[in-house]
Automatic annotation (TrEMBL):
GO BP term, example: cysteine biosynthetic process from serine
Modified residues (N6-(pyridoxal phosphate)lysine): K64
Protein's UniProt keywords contain Amino-acid biosynthesis: yes
Catalytic activity: O-acetyl-L-serine + hydrogen sulfide = L-cysteine + acetate
Protein name in UniProt: Cysteine synthase
Recorded family membership: Belongs to the cysteine synthase/cystathionine beta-synthase family.
GO MF terms, alphabetically ordered: carbon-sulfur lyase activity; cysteine synthase activity
Organism, scientific name: Acetobacter estunensis
Keyword Nucleus: no
Gene: cysK
C-alpha cells in the first residue's frame, strides 16, 4: 500500500497518483490497475497468483483507448494528419470506433466510422454523442462491406486518413511502451506469464516484445475463439467473443513472439466472466472471460505453481448487455 499524508485514524486511503490536473481526456489513457482474484483463487486451490489487468479503467472503457490515442498522436507527430483539417475514416463495429471518437473530438478531427448494420445501438449512439459520423453497410456483407465502404470514403474525401488498427505499427508499440511497462512495474518484475485475447494481436505482441526483453523466460499466450481458431490451423467461423478472433492473421500480430495460442469457447468465456463478477465482484466482458479461462487453465498446471500470471481484461460487462453474457438475468 502506498504511503499517503492522511491522518492516522483514517480508514481509507486515496489511490495514487493524486495532485495533478490532466490537460485533456487523452492524457487519462493507461495506468490501469492490476487486481487479484482472492476468492476465485481460493476456491480453485491455486498456488499460482492470477491477476487481472483492468483495461476498462481507461476513459472510454476499453483497452482500445490506448491505440485510439497512440495511432492519432503518432500520425500527428509524423505530419500525416492535422487537427481541424484531416478526416479520420475507420471500419470498426467494436471498441476501436468509440476510442477513436473521443480522441477525434478532443483533438478536433472529423471522424467517419463504417460498420455493418447489425452493430449494437449503444455503440452507434455513443459514436454520435461524440459527433462521429456513422455509415452503416449491409449486414450480409459483414466487415468486408464496412472495409470496402471505408476505402471508398477514403478515396473520395480530401485529407482523409485511415488509422488502420490491423496494420498500424503504433498499435503494438503502445502496448510495448505502456501496457507491458505497467505490468512490469506493478508486479515489481515478478510477472511470469501474460495471457491476452488476440483481435489485432497488438496487445499480446507488444507486451511479449517488451517483457521478453526485460526478463528471460517470461511467457505470453494469445487467446482465440474455438469457433474460429485460425491461429491453431482451423477455418474462420462465426463466434460470440467480440473483439477477438477476426478470422485472419493480422499484420499487427507477431505470432513468433507468442508461446502459444489457447482456444476458448464462447461458453467457457461467458462462464469465467460470470464467475469473476459473482465471486470477486469484477464484471468483465466476454473476451476478458476468455483470457481468464485460459489463465486459470495455465494456473492449474503443476509447472506453473507459485507463478504470477497476468490476464488482460479488455472491457467491462456493461458493454455486452444485449449479448448471452446476460442471458437469464
Ligand atoms: N477484447 C476486446 C473487447 C477488444 O475490443 C479487443 C480489441 N479488438 C481485444 C479483446 C483484443 O485486443 P487486440 O486487438 O490488441 O488483440
Amino acid at each position: 500500500m502506498a504511503a499517503h499524508d492522511l491522518s492516522p485514524d483514517m480508514t481509507f486511503s486515496l489511490a495514487p497518483p493524486r495532485g495533478r490536473v490532466f490537460d485533456s481526456i487523452v492524457d487519462v489513457v493507461g495506468g490501469t490497475p492490476l487486481v487479484a482474484l482472492p476468492r476465485m483463487t481460493a476456491e480453485d486451490g491455486l498456488t499460482a497468483r492470477v491477476l487481472l489487468k483492468l483495461e476498462f479503467f481507461n476513459p472510454l472503457g476499453s483497452v482500445k483507448d490506448r491505440i485510439g490515442a497512440a495511432m492519432v498522436l503518432a500520425a500527428e507527430r509524423e505530419g500525416i494528419i492535422t487537427p481541424g483539417r484531416s478526416v479520420l475514416v475507420e471500419p470498426t463495429s467494436g471498441n476501436t470506433g468509440i476510442s477513436l471518437a473521443f480522441v477525434a473530438a478532443s483533438r478536433g478531427y472529423r471522424l467517419i466510422v463504417t460498420m455493418p448494420e447489425g452493430a449494437s445501438i449503444e455503440r452507434r449512439k455513443m459514436l454520435r454523442l461524440m459527433d462521429a459520423q456513422v455509415e452503416l453497410t449491409p449486414s450480409r456483407l459483414g466487415m468486408a462491406g464496412a472495409i470496402a465502404r471505408a476505402r471508398e470514403i477514403l478515396d473520395t474525401t480530401p485529407d482523409a486518413w485511415m488509422p488502420g488498427q490491423f496494420d498500424n505499427p503504433a498499435n503494438p508499440l503502445v502496448h510495448e511502451e505502456t501496457t507491458a511497462e505497467e505490468i512490469w512495474q506493478d508486479t515489481a518484475g515478478s510477472v511470469d506469464i501474460v495471457v491476452a485475447g488476440v483481435g489485432t494481436g497488438g496487445t499480446a505482441s507488444g507486451v511479449a516484445h517488451a517483457l521478453k526483453r526485460r526478463k528471460k523466460g517470461v511467457e505470453v499466450f494469445g487467446v482465440e475463439p474455438v469457433e474460429s481458431a485460425v491461429l491453431n490451423g482451423d477455418e474462420p467461423g462465426p463466434h460470440g467473443i467480440q473483439g477477438i478472433g477476426p478470422g485472419f492473421c493480422p499484420a499487427t500480430l507477431d505470432v513468433q513472439a507468442l508461446d502459444g495460442v489457447i482456444a476458448v469457447s464462447e461458453r467457457e468465456a461467458i462462464a469465467a466472466a460470470r464467475r469473476c463478477a459473482r465471486m470477486d465482484g469484477i464484471p468483465i466482458g466476454i473476451s476478458s472471460g476468455a483470457a481468464l479461462h485460459a489463465a486459470t487453465q495455465l494456473a492449474k498446471r503443476p509447472e506453473n505453481a507459485g507463478k504470477t500470471i497476468v490476464s488482460i481484461a479488455p472491457s467491462f460487462a456493461e458493454r455486452y448487455l444485449s449479448t448471452p453474457l446476460f442471458n437469464g438475468l
